[in-house]
Write a structure and sequence with these properties.
2 domains; 347 residues; binds pyridoxal-5'-phosphate; 9-stranded parallel beta sheet; 8-stranded mixed beta sheet; 24% strand; TIM Barrel; Lyase, Ornithine Decarboxylase, Chain A, domain 1; alpha/beta
């Protein structure tokens, strides 16, 4: 069998959640963001694991994603939806008992008309200009909304992974001003904001990527290991080339392993000729173009070629692979392919 093996350590996810929880005061709720199928790692398994670890609040991007979380967690778990209450969402919000984060006057009206007694939160735009009510809109609806008792008021930081970025303090000031004197739980911080310090924590933090071992939570316990079987090895003489477009030329007599996985499995093509796979502790450079289903790896320096090489593991997390591919760890995680045999540890 040539498929790659993806191992997801749910124990490590729980450990990262506990460690991020410990960054804020005991009185601060630590939620878990499990949108995009828990960043590609399986929302039902991650949510069940984190509920056992003590998480009571979960966030998804769209209402449809709420079903997996609702099904995997205890009945009193809060499942919140960042995209709010869209047309067509009412039955899901009601039947799955989801909490929409209302983002606009239109969504507020829709929610109050369709589900007048159903819990909701409010998302404010403190400067990112992506989702949420702007300060002047919030001014016009705030008093009416407050009579309906929102369960949470939140906003999102645009630059929290850069601690020195002036946007952080600007957004903090804006959010503080927009929520001043309101007796409602407040939340501003995702992973990056959690690490910025207590003034960003308010009543709830909402880490996502840090749970899964990604930047900016550099102290995270690694969560994923991805091992790719070697299908074949070959000797390549000086002057011979490897792969599409003859993208790599041997300068010394070389041994090349062809491993099974490629851009169709989320190992994006921009990694061609960049980055490494690992034979236990030894780095082996990627050579030539990443194909749809295969990658060439220089194993000339190995005494023995193993049955499989790791592209994600203890030596190399998603952010290292992301650097080689010119992207971010989030994209590597959420692109992890569906052909891999998945093995979950710690369930
Ligand atoms: C994705 C997201 C989060 C989690 O962000 P991370 O950087 O992955 O921790 C929190 N809040 C909102 C609004 C998000 O969109």
């Amino acid at each position: 069998m040539a498929g790659g093996h993806l191992t997801v350590d749910l124990g490590a996810v729980a450990k990262n959640w506990r460690a991020l929880d410990a960054k804020s005061d005991k009185s601060v709720e630590t939620a878990a963001v499990v949108k995009a199928d828990a960043y590609g790692l399986a929302a039902d398994r991650v949510a069940a694991t984190l509920a056992r670890a003590g998480a009571k609040w979960f966030f998804v991007a769209i209402a449809e994603e709420g079903a997996a979380v609702r099904g995997a967690t205890p009945r009193d778990t809060k499942v919140c939806v960042f995209s709010g209450h869209m047309a067509g969402d009412t039955d899901m919000i009601h039947d799955l008992d989801l909490i929409p984060m209302l983002n606009s006057v239109e969504q507020i009206e829709r929610h109050f008309d369709a589900l007048p007694d159903h819990p909701f939160g409010i998302q404010l735009d403190s400067g990112m200009n992506r989702l949420g009510l702007e300060p002047d809109e919030w001014d016009t609806v705030r008093d009416g909304v407050m009579t309906k008792n929102p369960v949470l008021i939140m906003s999102h930081l645009a630059c929290a992974d850069e601690p020195d970025h002036p946007m952080n303090a600007q957004q903090l000031a804006c959010f503080t001003e927009m929520t001043e004197g309101l007796d409602v739980p407040k939340s501003l911080a995702a992973t990056g904001g959690t690490l910025l310090g207590p003034e960003y924590h308010f009543d709830m933090t909402r880490p996502g990527v840090g749970l899964y071992g990604g930047f900016p939570y550099t102290e995270a316990t690694p969560v994923v290991r991805l091992s790719l079987p070697v299908i074949q090895t070959r000797r390549v003489a000086v002057g011979e080339t490897v792969g599409y477009a003859a993208g790599w030329t041997a300068e010394v007599p070389s041994r090349i392993a062809t491993v099974s996985a490629g851009y169709a499995d989320g190992l994006i093509r921009a990694q061609s000729g960049r980055g490494h796979l690992w034979a236990d502790d030894i780095a082996c450079p990627i050579v030539g173009r990443v194909s749809m289903d295969m990658i060439g790896v220089d194993v000339t320096h190995l005494d023995r070629v193993p049955k499989a090489l790791d592209i994600l593991g203890p030596h190399q997390g998603v952010d290292v692979v992301a650097d080689a591919a010119g992207t971010i760890g989030y994209e590597i995680l959420t692109s992890l392919g569906h052909r891999y045999a998945r093995n979950y540890l710690g369930t």
